[in-house]
Amino acid sequence: MNWSEQVVLVTGGTGSFGKKFVEIMLRDYHPKKLVIFSRDELKQHDMRASGFNHPSLRYFIGDVRDQSRLERAFAGVTVVIHAAALKQVPACEYNPFEAIQTNIMGGRNVIDAAINQGVRRIFALSTDKAVNPINLYGATKLCAEKMFVQANAYAGAQDTRFSCARYGNVVGSRGSVIPVFLEQRKKGKITITDPRMTRFWITLDHGVKFVIHCIENMHGGEIFVPKIPSMTLLEMAKSVAPSCEVDYIGIRAGEKLHEVLLSEDEARNALEVDEMYIIQPSHPWWKRENWVDATPLPEGFRYTSDTNSRWLSGDELQDLIAPDMRVLAHTGRQRQAAVV
User: Fold this and answer.
1) CB neighbours of 254 closer than 8 A, spacing ≥ 6?
2) Of residues 129, 141, 227, 256, which has the active-site annotation?
3) Any idea what DSSP says for residue 96?
4) Between 211 and 233, whose confidence is greater?
5) In this predicted structure, which of 31-35, 46-50, 236-240, 287-291 has the lowest mean pLDDT?
6) Where are the domains of the chain?
7) Considering the domain 3-168+201-227+260-304, what is its CATH architecture?
8) Is the dihedral of CA 154, 98, 20, 325 positive or negative?
9) How far apart are CA 251 and CA 48, in angstroms?
10) 139: helix, strand or coil
11) What single string gives the DSSP state of each residue in 186-254?
């Protein structure tokens, strides 16, 4: 895939993923044009003022709830990365209609606009919370996954293909629990829901490069799952705030003790390659020879954060967050609580 010939658009482009994606795209891939699509003009202004003012960049104000605006933005675009979403679990629980409008109906608008405008590749970001969801955020992402996979049938013979990536908590994102720990440690006391709780972790840099790799290799219809490490919240807290008192507050509504990136039922139709798992669509239009070099998963396989074979150590976590410590601390001051 020759990125220098592509016109790339990122929905939710002023978010954590969007900024890192733009940074890597401009540094390493040099697309013909790179469009930031988001609804907050202040964030776009701040992003431009912080140095994201390359001649190939375009800033487009709009909401994924508005299909006509998406169609205008998608004109001439060849690649779309759909990162816009309502992601805070408590906010989605309290505002279910809003979460559905953005995460589900917004996804439908992206699909329809992309097909109508002839976009060639559309890649949607999902989450581990979409697997066996127990909160509304996860449920909306599960619906979005189903829509983007089936959108390949809607596209038909047209050269428009849809795929998804599903990964875990992002170290350094605005939704991460790490900024909360950094802020709490100033008072000498941090809060943890349950010491047994485990989560998958991925860095922004890894997440962006994984998405780019998947876009380059997608056939349309796959859900890509990276192989990433796990860590307990207790170990994470000890690493970030080693001398602080720990207060256990209990698991809250919408939280799981452990997360799942690949369920046992999905594994029956999934494949493995060196760096990831590939969930194949169970639809008649899918060609089994698309991934002939991949290996089927064993019977009963499931990919969960508590049985993971890769674990993140405290030192490794420090190495990951050290470059962004100042940014994370600033973000932590803006958030009073987090659900991971």
Assistant:
1) 89, 90, 93, 134, 135, 136, 137, 339
2) 129
3) H
4) 211
5) 236-240
6) 3-168+201-227+260-304
7) 3-Layer(aba) Sandwich (3.40)
8) negative
9) 40
10) helix
11) GGTEEEES-TT-EEEEEEHHHHHHHHHHHHHH--SS-EEEE---EEEHHHHHHHHSTTSEEEE--PPTT
Q: Is residue 337 pLDDT above 60, yes or no?
A: no
Q: Alpha-carbon distance 235 to 101, whole Å?
A: 37
Dihedral Cα 290, 291, 297, 299, nearest 10 deg: 30
Is the pLDDT score of 333 beyond 60? no
pLDDT at residue 323, as a whole number: 56
Res. 338: pLDDT tops 80: no
Chain-centroid distance of CA 108 in Å reads: 18
CB atoms within 10 A of CB 157: 5
Can you tell me the distance from the alpha carbon of 133 to that of 139, in angstroms, rounded to the nearest whole number?
Answer: 5
108, containing H or E segment: helix 106-117
| Residue 129 among the catalytic residues | yes
Over residues 100-129, the mean pLDDT reads 97
Least confident of 20-34, 42-56, 170-184, 224-238: 170-184
Q: Which helix (H) or strand (E) holds 323?
A: none
